[in-house]
Structures are given as C-alpha cells and as structure tokens.
Amino acid sequence: MSDLANTAPRRALVVIDVQNDYDGGNLAIQHPPFRDSVVNVTRAMDAAAAAGIKVVVVKQMAPETSPIFAKGSHGGELHPEIAKRRRDHYVEKNLPSAFTGTDLEAWLRANAVDTIAVIGYMTHNCDLSTIIHAVHMGFAVEFLSDATGSVPYANSTGYASAEEIHRVVSIILQSRFAAVLKTAEWIDCLKTGTLPERDTIYASNQRALARSAA
After folding, report:
1. Angle at 27 between CA 104 and CA 137, to 5 degrees
2. Taken in order 95, 96, 99, 102, is the CA torsion positive or negative?
3. What are the angstrom distances between the C-alpha of 66 and each of 57, 61, 75, 84, 184?
C-alpha cells in the first residue's frame, strides 16, 4: 500500500448504488442531503470521463418483496442522472461490498487499475464494505465524502444521527483505509497530478490525544 500511495495512481471511479430509494424513497439519504450529494456524484463522473478514467456503476439488487431496492421497482432503479451517463463497466450485487460475488476485482485487474475512487451510497454500509474489501486486496482507495451520504439508525445499542454516522465513518476511513476528500479537491488532483493526503492510525490517535490535553 505504501508504494501505491506514492506513485501516480491508475484510477477507476466506482459509483455505488445511486438508486431512487435513496432519493426521498424508502431509504432517503439525510446527510449530506441527497440533492447535494448526487450533484457531486455526477460532477465526479463527468470529471472522470473527461480525464479518461474508467467508470464503474454498481447497483444493489433485492427480491421483489424487499422494502428497499426491490427487483422491478422504481426505487430499485438507478437514479436517472447516473443511468444516462457513460460507464465502462456495470456491476450488480447482492451484498454490501461491490466485490463480493461480482467480477469487479477481475475487471479492475484486467484494466491495470490500482486505485479506486468510491462515491455513492451509503457511507457506512456499501461504501465502507467496498473500501475495506479493496484495501485487503491491495488497492489504494479514495473516498469523496460529499458525493455520498448516510441515514440515521436506532436499534438495541442506541441512536445515531445521519450526520454522526457519516462524520465518524469518514474519520475512520481517513485514519487507515482511504484518502478522504471533497469532490472539488479530487477533481483538482486529476488536473494537477497532486496525490491526496493519507493518514495513519497512530497519527490520527496522537492528534486526538493532543486535542484532549489542550
């Protein structure tokens, strides 16, 4: 991973599950708001296409009886802004990681990709799963934190708002698993060749300890 982080990346943009159920449907994204984040998804897709970066579109599949992403339902279809844009590869998945049970890894290897930029939904579920899976397979990862989003949860362990979930997962990703940056920053990296900032678990922890002691 250290070698990948210090050489010119051979990127692919992986667009995860930008489907209608997230756009005010049965699993409506709350933070950042879908109306804002989907604009950044399309900006990233357009920038990738302009830069000659291959684009992979991923779609979550679920049975017809599912309350979300049901086969044949409007909610399960790709958002029209994503469906109308160019893509180089298309993946359908049944589990959170875009790699599990799909040909994504083989396609990336065949196209000499060593770095994936992840956008789409949700920060804490399919994005997180895909990113961790990618790191374990030796890919470098970039995560565009304003081209994604989260929903709130409440269960037997407590409650977390969409903002809390998105913020904490983004911090965790930056500490080890990905270079976390905004869409505009990523587009600038494409234009200038600048490598995005990456961090470590130790450095992130030391800053937190210093903050607490201040």
Report:
1. 25
2. positive
3. 22, 10, 11, 26, 36
CA distance 133 to 128: 8
pLDDT at 1: 40
The span from the first CA to the last CA of the chain, in angstroms, equals: 33
Query: What would the pLDDT profile of 28-44 be if each residue is shown by its tens digit?
Result: 999 999 999 999 999 99
109-135 pLDDT, tens digit each? 999 999 999 999 999 999 999 999 999
Average pLDDT for 206-212:
96
What span, in angstroms and rounded, lies between the C-alpha atoms of 168 and 38? 21
**Can you give the pLDDT at residue 2?**
42
Kindly tell me if the per-residue pLDDT of 6 is higher than 90.
no
Q: Which of 173, 78, 196 is nearest to 125 (CA)?
A: 173
